[in-house]
Amino acid sequence: MNAIHLICGVDEAGRGPLAGPVYAAAVILNPQRPIAGLADSKKISEKKRDQLALEIRQHASAWAIATASVEEIDEINILRASLLAMKRAVEALSLQPHEVLVDGLYCPETGLPSRAIVKGDSSVAEISAASILAKTARDAAMIEMHERLPQYGFAVHKGYPTAAHIAALNQHGISAEHRKSFGPVRRLMGGK
Q1: What is the pLDDT of residues 138-156, one digit of tens each?
Q2: DSSP 140-154
Q3: What is the pLDDT of residues 21-35, one digit of tens each?
Q4: Checking DSSP bridges between strand 62-68 and strand 99-103, what pairing results, if any?
Q5: Phi/psi at 155 (nearest 5 deg)?
Q6: C-alpha to C-alpha distance for 22 and 39, rounded to whole angstroms
Q7: What is the pTM of this model?
Q8: Is 25 helix (H, G, I), strand (E, B) or coil?
């Protein structure tokens, strides 16, 4: 009898925001402990996401969350930083997967057999689980950031370029948490 083929799902959260790190998660689900209700994290309520994140952490065979910093995003660009966070998440797993399935168009360089799957967070349970862990971890970090920098409203918009966030940037200027390579932030700095 062959050993179980370990499939790892990978997804990121926070490519679009103007502030904060980009998060990625890698998850190997346990077939003996299925988790009901896994879906694209953007399509389920915050309460349901938090509940599922807890179940994933308790029941998955292995999971890991990693980030790429604002400085890394500004230095190497958001796509490369997302792939770097994904690579870090896969490398942080306590089990080595046989195959890595990634949401989107690109795979991080892990040295493992990998496949990119467009809309994978809606069609592959492992990627859905990774999507949920990445999103909940990033949201929690943005709420913590809000406690340090309440004037920007991070708890509400999570760093995305909403009208309220742009207004706060215009009023208060940029913080160390803002991505200086992103257009709206760069424009405030005088296009440097």
Answers
A1: 999 999 999 999 999 999 9
A2: HHHHHHHHH-GGG-H
A3: 999 999 999 999 999
A4: unpaired
A5: -65, -30
A6: 20
A7: 0.95
A8: strand
